[in-house]
Amino acid sequence: MLNPNGRELLKRIALYTSVTIAACWILAPIIISLLYGFASPEDYYDKYKVIPLHFTFKHVYELLFVLDSFRAVLNSLAVALGTIALSFLLGLPAGYALAKFVFPGKDTLKLLIVVTRMFPIMVIAVPLTVLYIRIGLSDTLIGLVLAHTAMSLPFVVLITSSIFAGIPTDYEEAAMVFGLSRVSSFLRITLPLALPGLAATAMFTFIISWNEVFIASVLMLVNRTLPAHILTMVTYGCPDYYKFAAISIMVLPAMSFVLIARKYLISMWGITIR
Amino acid sequence: MVEVKLRGVKKYFGKVRAVDGISLDIRDGEFIVLLGPSGCGKTTTLRCIAGLEKVDGGRIYFGNRDVTYLPPKERNVSMVFQSYAVWPHMTVYDNIAFPLKIRKYPKAEIKRKVKWASELLRIDDLLDRYPHQLSGGQRQRVAVARAIVIEPEVLLMDEPLSNLDALLRVKMRSELKKLQRDLKVTTVYVTHDQVEAMTMGDRIAVMDRGKILQVGSPEEIYLKPANVFVAGFVGSPQMNFFKVKVEEGIKLSSSFISFKPPTELREKLKPYLDRYLILGIRPEHIYLRGYEPPNLKEVVKVKGHVDFIELLGSDTIIHVKAGNDTLLVKVPMRVNVNLGGVIEVMLDLRQINLFDEVKGEAVR
Lengths: 274, 364
What we know:
The structure holds two protein chains of two kinds.
Chain A: H1 4-37, H2 41-45, H3 58-66, H4 69-100, H5 106-115, H6 121-135, H7 141-165, H8 169-177, H9 182-211, H10 214-219, H11 226-233, H12 240-268
Chain B: E1 4-13, E2 16-26, E3 31-35, H1 42-50, E4 57-62, E5 65-66, E6 77-80, H2 92-102, H3 107-120, H4 136-148, E7 154-158, H5 166-183, E8 186-191, H6 194-200, E9 203-208, E10 211-216, H7 218-223, H8 228-233, E11 240-247, E12 251-253, E13 258-259, H9 263-269, E14 276-281, E15 286-288, E16 299-311, E17 315-322, E18 325-332, E19 342-348, E20 353-356
Parallel strand pairs in B: 3-8, 3-9, 6-7, 7-8
Antiparallel strand pairs in B: 1-2, 1-4, 4-5, 9-10, 11-12, 11-14, 12-13, 14-20, 15-19, 16-17, 16-19, 17-18
């Protein structure tokens, strides 16, 4: 048998090993893409160099400005921000109502919200495109914002409802007793308290929209968003380092967005920072 | 600083009648306590007065003003919540100043009033702190300071002491009462704690199942309960109850006693001939032989054996088994009784309460 110290050490080793594996699992592909995305073609094809030594911005530059990815980045940003705005506009009141009010059919409604996400997107993609062409929404950013909102709305509703449920109703009622209307007590008491959680929700929504490729590819032809654009640009004939450069362009904005808002992520899972 | 009148106030939650037609006159500057078990509708009544619940019937007046359908902010009431509801994202100063800021008081005035309220509650050294840096007792003081700073017409308190530890609760009890007396603000205080009700209230309204059963001074509630529920709810240990039959010649008899009630009661008992009543007598109105006060006049003596002894420190509760009933007797600290031994106790007939067996109402 091991003495307590030895067991403690083993536990520690097991912990650090699993943490390292988990970190590598996530970081390795990102690091590899970054390395090869900026590697010079000579270094990339040199079979004696596993880690490239000469770097260039050429691939990224060409992808962005020659192959028009920059416009796609802007499109993606616009769609993601639009999706956040619209899904919050619709989702916050729903989340608030689910959190604070008792009404018949509440649980069924909650379930139905999740059920909408069980519906495979492939099934609705073609009918949706036909519909969009008919009403003139095809290939417009607004059309894609609507589609992405439909995708992210269930999450926004459910997550914000748990955020609002975590804020005692007493706070709002106290504000009402002391002179505020219902709406302004929400704006001045509940909203500031919910803000960390809402920031995390916004981040989540951003990533859903930013990474979404299928609907974006089907609905958009000219105004493609970044994932859809890259999918068409970077195909079989394309050199590998362009593919890695494309991955870097995809990942970097999303990563930095996550890193900035990282500290708020905790509260999305119910531990609101007070 | 206004009288509050409730006229047949009703509030239903689905089929549950939380408040079932309550009428109550609260006098100007009075401290009234709504007392009752949990779920009796006392908090809902308070929330109706605050305007946080829309009533389903009846009217609420502040003075001559009908406030029944006014939103809370137009009623000029203040409330201390059970959870205190001190806003966590504001400092103590901002919490107290918030109601004033909403009312658009000038800056200097806000400063002066916050200073006044915080000094009154002795939290003036905590003004820069955030609520999570405060203890429960301090948070409660902030809640009270915030409630009085606007000098409301009506101050509502929803079990404000229930989250404090026992020692602090006793201290805050007298402090709140003194504060209310100095401010002369009409106060409605909700509690399920009869000691709070007895010590703080000018009057007590005892509630059960959405109805007010009795309104009266603490003495009235304690000594002349209007029905079995009030008699049983107020007082610790509980009042002794046992069944008695009204027999020929207006005699009351139970499983262990038979006696003639005091003369002034006899006339009122005539309609109950051959029927059963519930007799109630408080444990401190039963005396152990040898410990009775000298001026005790009309008594019934009962013999029984000691079933159980509870030492409370200041008093001792003796459970005396007599006939089919057990009588609780409250005696001074140390008395010489043995478990299982036979003792004689005396029931003070001046202090008995008789209740209708079916309706539970007092026979008066």
